[in-house]
Amino acid sequence: MENIAAGNRTTTLPHGSRPAGLPAKIRTALEMIKFEHSIFALPFALTGALLAARGWPSIRQILWIVAAMVAARSAAMTFNRIADLRFDALNPRTRLRALVSGKLSPRFAAAFTVVCSVVFILAAAELNRLALELSPLALAALLGYSYTKRFTWLSHLALGICLGMSPVAAWIALRGDVSVGVLLLGAAVTLWVAGFDLIYACQDVEFDRRHGLASFPSRYGIAAALRGSSALHVLMVGLLVVTARVEGLGWLAELGVFLVALLLAYEHHLVKPSDLSRVNAAFFTLNGYISVLFFLTWGSDVILRRYI
C-alpha cells in the first residue's frame, strides 16, 4: 500500500491500481495530460511557421517544430499535475486524475517530465542556435506557470503567454529573429487562451476560495470573469485583424477571423453565470475547432499567395 498526503488528509492506495508495464504507464500519462489537446497550440505554431517561410517549411523543419511543441506541452502539463497533486486530491472535480488515484506515481510523472523536457531542448537544437539558447527560458515559463495560481489572479494571463509563445517560437525556429506581425499573433493567442481559461476556472470558484488559490473568478466572481473573458476575446479578434494586415494577408485570412469570432460568440453563449454545465463543451470542443479553423484559413491564404 502507498500513502499520498493531501493537505490534512491521507489517501491509501493499492499498488495494484497502477499499470504494470511501461507502455501502459505512458498511455495513462498521455490520458492524464489530455495529449489530444495539443491541438490547441499546434495550429498556431504551424501558422507561425508558414508565415515565417511564406509558404511550406521543409518537412524536417515541420517535424522538429511539432516534436518541440508536443514535448513542451507534455512536460508542462505533467509538471502541472505534480505541482497540483495536493489540491487535485481535495477537489471533487479532479480526484480521479491518475496521480491522485495512484494509477501513476509522482516518480514516474517526474521522469516523464524530464524526458519530455530533454526532447524539447533537442528539437530546438535541431532547428537553430537561437531556438536552442531560448529553450531553457521557454521551459522555465512553461513549468513556472504551475505555481502562479498560488500568488496571483493573473495566472490566466500566464497560461495565455505559455501558449502565445508558440507562433513566435516557430518563427524563431525558421528565421532566427522576430517580426511585429508574429508578436501580434502571439499576443492574440495569449488573449484567446487567457479568455477561455477564465471560463474554465469558473468551475472551481468555491474550491479556490476555501484553499487560498488565486484566480480571477474566485476574487471577482463568475459574472465578472465571464465579462472579462468576452473582453479578452474581442481584443483577440481585433489583434488578428491587425496581424492579417501587417502580414499582407487577404480575404481567406479575414474570413478565418470572422469565423473564429462567430465561434467565440457561440462559446460565450453556452456559458452563463447561473449555468456552467456546458463549460467543457465551450472549453474543449469549440476551442479545438477554433484553432484548426484558424490554421486552415490563414495557412491556405499564405500558401495561395506564395504558389498561385
What does this structure look like?
This protein is mainly alpha-helical. It has a single domain, classed as UbiA prenyltransferase (Tetracycline Repressor, domain 2), CATH 1.10.357. Helices cover about 75% and strands about 5% of the residues. The chain contains 14 helices and two strands. The protein has helices at about 20-30, 40-55, 60-85, 85-90, 100, 105-125, 130-145, 155-175, 180-200, 205-210, 215-220, 220-245, 250-270, 280-305; strands at about 1-5, 10-15. A two-stranded antiparallel sheet has the order 1-2. The N and C termini lie far apart (about 65 Å).
Number of strands: 2
Per CATH, which architecture?
Orthogonal Bundle
Catalogue the unreliable spans.
1-16
**H and E string:** EEHHHHHHHHHHHHHH
CATH fold call:
Tetracycline Repressor, domain 2
**Biggest β-sheet, characterized?**
2 strands, antiparallel
Percent of sequence in beta strands: under 5%
Helix count, DSSP H or I runs of 4 or more residues: 14
- Strand neighbour order, sheet with most strands: 1-2
What would you call the structural class?
A: mainly alpha
Radius of gyration: 20 Å
> CATH superfamily, called what?
UbiA prenyltransferase
Name some characteristics of this structure.
disordered N terminus, two-stranded antiparallel sheet, Tetracycline Repressor, domain 2, 2 strands, 308 residues, 14 helices, mainly alpha, globular
